[in-house]
Each structure stands twice: as structure tokens, then as C-alpha cells.
């Protein structure tokens, strides 16, 4: 069975990841990739000018049913300097946990850890799912050869291996969280409405076809005194497991030099999951996309 709920959830939580969960599934995410140019070096992400090691961003997740919009959880994204296999690396981490009534009904503690080279080449992703005492690990190890990206996908519980396979792509291919770095690397000066960016995401034994579709600039209003200037993208998911592939989710990216998500919305069978930026520290640039309006 395809992990369609896992992918939608990942889109909803980014930004790292983020919506309605059930046993054996993962987080969802927004990602933006370019076509592979034919050499392994093209898989590196030109995003280092967007962040500093030490960056940390907080998000809140809500479920929306009609006029009801209860808070369902919170997520933290962070980037740190580290070492991977005794070499310098970046550690990109997502922590998600339920809150409020959702914590009492179905407790979730999900973590994704990604490791990049200093040149932002994805090396490994490990997703740990802890949902109502159900524990699952998805371990992805990436390797590169001319024109191809390979991922060794190992999914297991404490008692048995569920998946152990190799997946190969001639396009960009990432895990659900690591690919989000591409979203921040986009050159908006050279982008026009309708531009599409296809890529692959590895989930279990599946290679999911996804595309980001740029629509232009939009204003996100949080309340009467707080707004954000953003760039808006639809997320199209081309997979047989999805009844709706076009605009399955959408994301609003802050229109400043940081390029961090401000809002994410993923459609569910009933209602929608929405993720909102809450706070941040250690950003490389001022958050000039945030506009505060004085009360009258």
C-alpha cells in the first residue's frame, strides 16, 4: 500500500512534515527541486546563503473543519553543525508532537534527522515514528553516480524489518524533509507564474512523483495587526494512491532572504491541516516579510 497519508502529513508539518497520522506512517513536507543536470554534483543544494548553523524555527499545526480550527500539535526545525562519519556536516532536524485534545486521543512524537555535507549534498535521513506506543524507523542512505541518485531504504520496528530495498532516480530524489532545502534555494528573480519543478521523494519502497507550481506573490493575514508577504506554490502529487493530484497541498514562503515557510495547507478527506509559523531564532537575515500593523 502506498504511503499517501504519510506524504500528505509530511507536506502539512514542514517544514518538516505535519498532518493527520495513523499507525505506520510518517510526516509530510513541502519540497522544491530542479531537474537533474546529469552530474552527481548537481544534487547539491545552493542554499547555504539562506541559513546559519544555529537556526531554529517553531510552527503550530491546526486541523480545520468548517469554522472549527483546534490546535493539533507543534513542530521545531533546526540546523546545526555536526560530524557525520567523522567528517564535517550539517544536521537538519524536525521534531513534532501532538498537543491539546489530540495529545489525549492519539499521542505522537515524530523525529526526522537529515545529514548534509558542507556543500549541502544529502547523505542520510532517519525518521523515527512514535505514535501511541507504536515505534517505527525509516532509514535512508543516499549515494550518487553520474546522472543517478540511489537511496537504500530500510524500514523496521524493534522486532522486524519491513522494507529493505534500493531505489534509483535520474531526477533529484530526497527524503521528505531533506528535499525542503530546495524550496529555500530558489532564485525568485528568475521565476515566473506557472513554472513547475518536478522531483522524487522516497517513502518506504515507493518513489513518489511530485511537482511544485509557482503562482506568484500573496499576503498571508494572521490577524488584524500581523501579515506576511509571501511567495505561493501549489504542490502537485502524481501518484495512483491520490484521488486528487493537482493542488494536493500549498505553501506560502516568506518573501525575504531567509525563504522560510510561513503557512502550509494540506487537504484531507475531511477538512484540512494547516501549519503556521510561530517564532524563530538564529535566522541569517531579518524577517522582513513580517509586517506588523499598529492598532488604531
UniProtKB/TrEMBL annotation:
Record Pfam families: DUF3108
Designated name of the protein: DUF3108 domain-containing protein
Organism from which the protein derives: Parabacteroides goldsteinii
